[in-house]
Design brief:
Helix content: over 70%
Oligomer: single chain
Structural class: mainly alpha
Shape: globular
Strand content: under 5%
Number of strands: 0
Number of helices: 16
Length: 426
């Protein structure tokens, strides 16, 4: 059942009501058009940042925010991650950097004012969960449009099937972990239950193997997120996952092709000799990801402190290929398709330490609270962090492409705000 969380009322509430209602509206709308309208996520994240700055200016009295030590550390880490970009580009001479990329990286810094505002808005997390309910229907509509009307082999949305699958995966597990089927509102309960299946359909339609892995892994973990864990619950859940996966694999030619191709490319890469790893046709998109990792490590070793910069991967990998230090199968790829390798190569030691600290501290803050409170925020946040890590192992766009980064940061800031509201109950 939904547990209402009330934070300490803001003084002169009417003074902030309009701003906070605007913030709720922006949080609600951002996920809905994230995969269907270009620039939607970035624009709404920017509007949310502007609203948060106005809110802070009007509030002025920062002492009343009661920020604890853990929150200060998280906020400083996000600010430092932006500064690691400034440091890296300064050391690399700002080669090839465009002004829009500076504003893109600025999203990490804007996490701070957005968090300070959302933390003081009652039950902001439920606004996001209800948005996911609506988003499930939008994603399913777009999947049907891509597959049936445009007659393309996969659902891509307006960007790419990887992003479309990522958005569908996040909404799916936000709804599952929020237990929408237990909501007191009959209409939201029915809509939420249907939306879960629509999100799952959209993940399947995207044919994103990274999303397949994330969904499978999170379904394996899902039984352990219940308050009462029993062997029966685990066995039944895992059996249902296995049966569903086998039925899907045997009845969907597209899913079968994508899964078979992934295993074939992995097998070919393992068996490839020194000459064959340079042939993309042999090792494919799975094998080349391992070569991305090797190249990223070499770049880190060459420039350990600052990395090669935001645009440096494509430039430096050409040098490595010319010297025979990297596989020629990498070709002209602009990033290593792994968020952790991307940060390691582009921002060096300081960047990767800060990035790992952010992910680790967020995971810890959700993990230590999810069994200690009736509030579902830690549970939703924990599943989101795990899903984010899994998807980020196969894609780096989740942290450096404006639309994907804005979408992920919204979930991070809302869920972390929501989680900390449960600590403010009197």
């Amino acid at each position: 059942m939904m547990t209402e969380i009330q934070v300490e009322p803001v003084k002169n509430y009417k003074k902030y009501a309009t701003i906070e209602n605007a913030a709720k509206l922006l949080v609600f709308l951002l996920p809905i058009g994230a995969a269907s309208i270009k620039g939607w996520s970035s624009a709404f994240y920017g509007f949310l940042a502007i609203v948060s700055v106005v809110w802070l200016i009007k509030k002025a009295d920062f002492k009343s925010l009661r920020i604890c030590k853990e929150e200060k550390i998280i906020l400083w880490l996000f600010a430092l991650f932006f500064l690691s970009f400034i440091f890296s580009e300064t050391m690399n001479g700002w080669i090839g950097i465009k002004s829009r990329w500076v504003f893109l990286e600025l999203r990490y810094l804007l996490f701070v004012p957005i968090y300070l505002m959302l933390r003081n808005i009652n039950n902001i997390g439920y606004v996001l969960i209800k948005s996911c309910v609506v988003t499930g229907f939008v994603l399913a509509f777009h999947s049907c449009y891509d597959l049936l009307v445009l007659e393309i082999p996969r659902a891509t949305g307006v960007y790419h099937h990887l992003y479309f699958g990522g958005v569908s995966t996040v909404c799916l597990f936000a709804l599952l972990s929020a237990e929408v089927y237990g909501w007191t509102s009959k209409y939201w309960r029915i809509a939420g239950s249907i939306s879960i299946f629509l999100c799952l359909f959209s993940v399947i339609a995207s044919t994103s193997r990274g999303s397949y892995v994330a969904v499978s892994f999170l379904f394996l973990l899902y039984p352990f997120f219940n308050k009462k864990i029993t062997v029966r619950t685990i066995v039944v859940s895992w059996m249902l996952l296995i049966v569903f996966s086998l039925l899907l694999y045997s009845n969907s030619e597209l899913v079968k092709q994508r899964v078979d191709l992934g295993f074939k490319q992995l097998s070919d890469y393992i068996q490839a000799d020194k000459d064959q790893i340079h042939d993309y046709e042999i090792i494919g998109s799975v094998g080349v990801r391992f070569e991305f990792g090797k190249a990223a490590i070499l770049m880190f070793m060459d420039k350990p402190l600052s990395g090669v910069g935001r645009t440096g991967f494509a430039r430096e990998v050409k040098k490595l290929m010319a010297n025979g230090r990297a596989s020629r199968a990498i070709g002209s790829f602009a990033d290593p398709h792994n968020a952790f390798f991307y940060v390691l190569a582009s921002k060096g030691f300081f960047g990767i330490i800060i990035f790992l600290s952010i992910v680790g501290l967020l995971f810890y803050s959700f993990f230590v609270n999810w069994r200690l409170t009736k509030n579902i925020a830690p549970k939703v946040g924990l599943m989101f962090v795990i899903g984010f890590v899994i998807v980020s192992l196969t894609e780096s766009a989740s942290i450096h492409r404006g639309h994907w980064l804005s979408f992920n940061l919204l979930f991070f800031v809302v869920l972390y705000s929501w989680r900390n509201q449960s600590r403010m109950i009197r």
